[in-house]
Amino acid sequence: MTPFKPKLIVFDLDGTLVDSSPDISNAINLMLSALNQQTYSKQQIRHWMGNGVTMLIKRALTGELNPLTDPDNLQLAKRVFSDFYRQNVCVESQLYAGVKEGLDQLQAAKINLACVTNKPALFTSSLLTEIGIIDYFPFIASGDTYSRMKPDPLPLLEAANFFANETEHALMVGDSINDIRAGKSAGFKTALVPYGYIGKYSCDQLGADYQIDSIAHLSELLSLAY
């Protein structure tokens, strides 16, 4: 493994730092019930996660992994979901093991930390605040912060600009194809956590530069560069 010491590490949120699937699943099923549609198991809804809330809602409305058209009630469903999820954004959600420890280690090493998520800003700040890690991230970009979101590299490039860091000294840490594609397009190194919402892909198919079982293991990865 090639030694690499980044000056900036950008983290995805859902499926990387936080297991938010229980609260998202609950809101999806409340939405479906309100619309008189079939509900699903949390395991099924978790399988549909990883490509943004709009795609998740489309999958829930249609029961299809790759819906070809937008359901007629998509906009109504998005409003209903938002109402339910906003009120219960951090009831059952939990930090993954090693997240707090890993962030503490990186902060102590004076590495710049950012959070870039496709989650709408309405939910991002609430979740980061309620789960207790918002203060680690001087830079936070949500799915509606800029005109484009992951897998587009724009929010990652904005993070690098914010810290005045060159992209070759930056690392994107995530759990999905959107994270890895965004990182590679931005010129970042990429690290994959295999425990999140990887969807239909295998870890090998995503082609990340590194794979780590826990955010706490990032310090071990970075120690290669000292």
What does the secondary structure layout of this molecule look like, with pairings?
Blueprint (H helix, E strand, L loop, with lengths): L7 E4 L6 E2 L1 H14 L7 H7 L4 H10 L11 H14 L6 E2 L3 H10 L3 E5 L4 H11 L7 E3 L12 H10 L6 E5 L2 H10 L2 E4 L10 H4 L3 E2 L6 H5 L4
Parallel strand pairs: 1-4, 1-6, 4-5, 6-7, 7-8
Antiparallel strand pairs: 2-3
Helix pairs in contact: 1-4, 3-4
GO biological process, one term: carbohydrate metabolic process
Protein name: phosphoglycolate phosphatase
Pfam family, one: HAD_2
Description:
- This protein has 226 residues and is α/β, with parallel strands linked by helices.
- The chain has two domains: 8-19 and 93-225, Rossmann fold, CATH 3.40.50; 21-87, Orthogonal Bundle (DNA polymerase, domain 1).
- 42% of the residues lie in helices and 12% in strands.
- The strands form two sheets. Strands 5-4-1-6-7-8 form a six-stranded parallel sheet, sandwiched between helices. It has a two-stranded antiparallel ribbon with strand order 2-3.
- The two termini are 14 Å apart.
